[in-house]
Sequence to fold (557 residues):
Amino acid sequence: MSEECGYSPSFKRPSETMRMRRKRARSEAFPSPGGGHDGSGTGQTSPSPPSCPSLRPFAPGPLLGKLSRSAGAAKRRNPFANIENRFGLTRDDGKDDKMESTAEGVSTAKAEDADVPTSSPESSLQSPPGSEGGDVQTPLLKAVAPEPATPPLCTEYPADWSLKTRLLFSSSLTLAWTEHPKAQEEALGLSQHCRTHFSTVPHCLQDARSCVDLRCAFQQSLIYWQHPSLPWVPLFPRMDAERRFAGTSAPWAHDAALQQSLMSEWSAALSSLYGLLKARLCPYFYVCAHQFTVLFRAAGVGGSSGVTATMSPTSRGLRDAMEAEGIRFTLPLMEERRKCGEPRDEDDEDDDCGGGLSWLEEIGVRDKIRKPDGVSMQFKEGRAAIVDHKPESAACVEGAHAFTLINFLINSKGVVATAGSQAGLPPTLLAPLAFRGAALHTLKARCVNVKSQVGSTYQNVSSLEIAGPILPSSLHAITTLLGPAQKGNFSATLYTHTPTAVLNVRDPRQQCESGPTDLSQCGLHPASVRQLQRPSGLGKSALTQITMKDYSYAWKN
Fold:
């Protein structure tokens, strides 16, 4: 009767099929200790199932697929697996998938598909010894994406040797603590500057306005020294500043005796500055003339082993005068252009001069005619004028030639203007420390509160403006104080005196051959000294913006 209805004698009930599969899975997972053979009696060793500590049993998810492929076996489709059959599998987004298993056969089929021992969901975290699954412990692990690497903390920005005319700081926290100092705070800041003492400002400040050490240190960072000092005459900047001098009283313009007195005092002040520089009691100073600016740096400053000087811009006449005095100098930016494949000026001069008189040789009379010296000089000056008064004309002097340059500046008549609104006025000397004939000056600081638009709302932003000839050490001292005062978050816009931007250029041959030079007595804060000792690396550019975020610096040039 059963055969007539299509009944097959080989048909087995599902419960019997599942029982055989469970028995086979247990025999394959735990071979008998007698010889590791399977139950078929053929003598072949049953393959051991692959193990992966990060795979939870009965989980036919992505990890199971990776395991099957890594084990070299073809991935089989599990007919019992569906999205509702997962249990305890942690997804990439951190959420746990739940599963409710109601049939023992479903769990068994999953175990067979994953080639792992069969166990109940409760025993998947930890199977007790002697249980059917053995003493294997399979922890439930969470797949977590690797955290991105934290960027390194940049606690310093490169030294900028250009002179700044204005600084504009902004912060979400108030900067009102920088203005209206008390008489005692201003006096203490002045005293600390003259005695080269420095206050220790706490790294974390709760209230900057109530911190006396911070306010005194800020007043100390605004001080600089200048010669000559004429209150009614703006002595910085000197280049391209004819309008600033227009209309000012200049009693020395037509008084030779007064001009001689000014130059005598100026020469003594310059000699005093160089003596301090050579003794490493002053790290640097500036000579600001009406046509050029010279930066003198002590040994060990800027990565150099000796005293260095950088003059910019220069002209052919000025360079010829320096050569006549025996001053050896280099033009680093011109040499850099030549290394890049541009022709040398001397080669062009020879080609131009030779080409201009080649027709005399063709007609056979060149030997009978003397070559005029004016032709060679004309082409020579024409080629040299290409870089005159440009950044490429910056000249670097090193060692004993720096002292010769001091004498050249004292004795040269071209240092002082002979006509115009600056006629008879010696160059301006700027230094971070006192020297003979210098007057103490303070940068002007002003704080205002403004509203800045951020998206569709307006936020209160505190702004601090500092004006004057801002030296590199002053810039570093101010930013060092603003870090803890503004809780490591502020931004600054820097306005550079354009002709001095090229002073960051450095001759690659000026390298420190010995160890670091001792500059502990130079009168600057140790942190500023460490910054100024390193080579700048800015080339002929200058910093235009500095940003501190979470006590880490970023900058633009």
